[in-house]
Amino acid sequence: MTPPVLVALVVGALAVRTVASKLRLPPQLTLLAVGLCVSLLPGLPDFGLEPEFVLAFVLPPLVYSAALDSSYVNIRAMLRPIGLFSVGPVVATMAAVGVAAHVLLPQFPLASALVLGAVIAPTDAVAAVSICRRLHVPRRAMVLLAGESLGNDAAALTLWKLAIVVATGATLTWWQGILAFLYAAVVGGLIGAVAGFVVHAVRVRIGDGVLESAMGVVTPFACYLLAEQAQASGVLAVAVAGVLMGHQAPYGRHTTRLRENAVWRSVDVLLESVVFAVIGLQLRTIAAAVGVSWGLVGAAAALLAVTVVVRVLWVFLVRNRDLDLKGTTIVGWAGMRGVISLAVAYATPPSMPGRELVLFATFAITVGTLLLHGSTLALLIRLLRVPADEERENADDEARVRHDAVAAASEELDRKVADRGETTPEHVVELLRSLAEHHQGAAREWMEDQEGGRAEAYQRLLATMLDVERKVFVAARDAGEIDDEVLRRVLRELDLRQASVDTP
Q: Transmembrane region positions (predicted)?
């Protein structure tokens, strides 16, 4: 793809997504539909992306962004069920879909059919978690959905690579496959953990928010490439690094957190839009290559059914004791596939037999799950009448810790004022104390009318107080008193309050 074509693709994808947002249409499906329509126009250039480019530059930031929003504390508390859901459903889906695809489509080699199974095995929890959060689904269900999504991305991609090795003619015994999988998981996880701790340790000592943000942007790509060079799971390395970096973010600079939040939201929208648009643009070529028929459409529908049934059966057979029947039902039905599956399918080497079938079936299953689960999940949650008591608990926990944080910040203010004697005007101290108690954000208007020395004292003391508030909330998160979602919301509020009075 030439640079002008790439620019046209990006601009067009973002334009379509903007229109879809204005019209309140599903952006993913709209991009696919528009891409398919555009692909029918004559004389279009090639919009294909190199598989290596997709693996190295599309997957890492998507996984890393999702990992940053995950909760290390909650994942650790639910490590066993997340572990069961990260690997078990992937293996079961890969086997069931692979065998079914080979039986339904005899021209599809079994090894290539297993590649398809690995491609559509990972779920995309972003949409599901968004719906669940809006409808106040219990926290444990959302933690399980988000945690399993990270884990099964890594497991599925590792199995996908092993299946491609077999599909392209190499021999691999069961024991070799199991050992390769374990090596990829262990080494990939270690690389991600080391990278997460090292990058955080370096960033907190830099003192430059822009440079710290730049290091954060580089981290997923570096983790992925290091792990791949070691023949380990690059996706798992990125996921582990992202979870640890997100957990340690409260200890960094507020400017860095605000910048990174905006950067990764933008990256998510950009990459997801481009991937869905590319698949839509390529669908006509793919359909022509496989020779679409009613038999093929029926086989794709049957594979969609297998995908849905395998997940529901697994969720109920390996039912987590921390979830009641309603939570288990929601988790079982939240099996939407998304951008990861499409990106991995597109990254399948062109030399693999049956690649076009993998792309076509992945497209059909992804669209099918988005339509099926995406249109019915919210209705199912309402019909189950899931209690929203946890939302009230979150609000109560936040109010209690906020009270403690304000008290601690006020005490710190008193100590600082006492240490400095009479150098800070009393009305400045009173204003700070009032802002701490009422969380008002009108500091800049006051500062514009003050002398430089007073403004500096105001900034210095406010920064100290906000630091103490952050520490109280982080300690409450680490002690399990509040959820990471509460912490992120409060941190953003505190960061914006501090940013509102910062001067160059």
A: 53-75, 82-105, 111-133, 154-175, 181-202, 263-283, 295-318, 330-347, 359-384
Is the residue at 281 inside a domain? yes
On whether both 476 and 360 belong to a single domain, the answer is no
Closest C-alpha to 352, from 44, 86, 51, 7: 51
Q: How far apart are CA 280 and CA 33, in angstroms?
A: 6
CA terminus-to-terminus distance, the chain:
42
Task: Examine the fold and report which residue of 385, 418, 445 is the final residue of a domain before the chain moves on.
Answer: 385
Find the domain containing 326 and state its range. Answer: 50-385
Residue 275 sits at the vertex; the CA angle it makes with 291 and 334, to the nearest 5 degrees, is 90
pLDDT at 87 over 80: yes
- Please check whether residues 319 and 432 belong to one and the same domain: no
504 pLDDT exceeds 50?
no
Measured from the Cβ of residue 114, the count of other Cβ atoms closer than 10 Å reads 24
pLDDT digits (tens, 9 = 90+) for 312-323: 999 998 876 767
- Boundary-marking domain end, from 359, 385, 411: 385
Instruction: With respect to residue 27, please indicate whether it lies within any of the assigned structural domains.
Output: no
Cα separation, 80 vs 59, in Å, equals 26
Q: What is the mean pLDDT of residues 474-492?
A: 87
SS (H, E, C) 259-309: HHHHHHHHHHHHHHHHHHHHHHHHHHHHHHHHCCCHHHHHHHHHHHHHHHH
Under DSSP, the state recorded for 423 is S
Please state the rounded mean pLDDT for residues 116-137: 79
DSSP secondary structure string for all residues of 365-376: HHHHHHHHHHHH
Query: Structure pTM?
Result: 0.78
pLDDT band with cut points at 50, 70 and 90 for residue 448 = very low
| Residue 23 placed within a domain | no
Q: Helix or strand or coil: residue 26?
A: coil
Nearest CA to 304 among 437, 35, 120?
120
CATH label of the domain that carries residue 90: 1.20.1530.20
| Phi-psi group of 22: left, alpha or beta (phi > 0 → left; psi -120 to 50 → alpha; rest → beta) | alpha
Residues with Cβ within 8 Å of residue 180, at least 6 apart in sequence = 162, 172
Residue 114 lies in a domain: yes
